Amino acid sequence: MDQNIKRSLILDHYQEPRNRGLIEDDSYIKSNTNNESCIDEIDLMAKVEDGKIKDIRFDGEACAICTSSASIMTDLVKGKTLTEAKKKIINFSNMLEEKEYDKEILEEAVVYDDIGRQPSRKKCALLPWWGLEKIIREVEENGENKS
Fold first, then answer.
1. Is residue 99 a contact partner of residue 82, using CB atoms and an 8 Å limit?
2. What is the pLDDT of residues 83-140, one digit of tens each?
C-alpha cells in the first residue's frame, strides 16, 4: 500500500475515530490496556451475543497510532464471530512481528505493516488488540455478559 494512502487512513481514523465513546450498559464486557512507557491508555467495551461481537466501543487517551488502530480494529471486528476476531488478532500480531500473515483478513489494518520496524510504535498499534484479546478470553472463560 502506498505510504500516502497509509498516512491518510491513519490520520482519518485518528481525527474521526469510529466507535469511540463508552456507554453505560452492564451487558458489555470491559477491558483496559495501557502502555506504561507513554500516555496510551485504552478502555474497550464489547457486547457479545451468540458468539458474535454485536457492538464494540473504545475511549481513552492515546497517540495517533494507538487511537487509529483502535478505530480500525473496532470497525473490523464489529459483527464478526469471536473465531473471526481471533484470526484478525493473530494476523495483526504476526504482521507487526514481521511473520507470515494474511492481508485479506486484516483489510484496512494493513496500514500498520511497517510499524514492526519501529519497536517503540509497535506497542501503540497492538494495545487495543490486546484489549480485545482480554475480552475474548473473558467470554471464553466466563461466558457472555459477565463483567
1. no
2. 999 999 999 999 999 999 999 999 999 999 999 888 889 999 999 999 999 999 999 9
Residue type, 72: I
pTM (two decimals):
0.94
CA atoms of 93 and 126, how far apart (whole Å) = 7
- Spatial strand order in the sheet of 41-49: 29-34, 41-49, 52-61
Cα(129)–Cα(17) distance, integer angstroms: 15
Domains and CATH numbers, the chain: 3-142 (3.90.1010.10)
SS3 29: strand
- Tell me how far the alpha carbon of residue 26 is from its chain's centroid: 21
Q: Do you know the residue count of the chain?
A: 147
- Give strand ranges (E) for the chain: 29-34, 41-49, 52-61
Q: Identify whether the C-beta of residue 19 lies closer than 8 Å to the C-beta of residue 56.
A: yes
Distance CA 93, CA 8 (A): 22
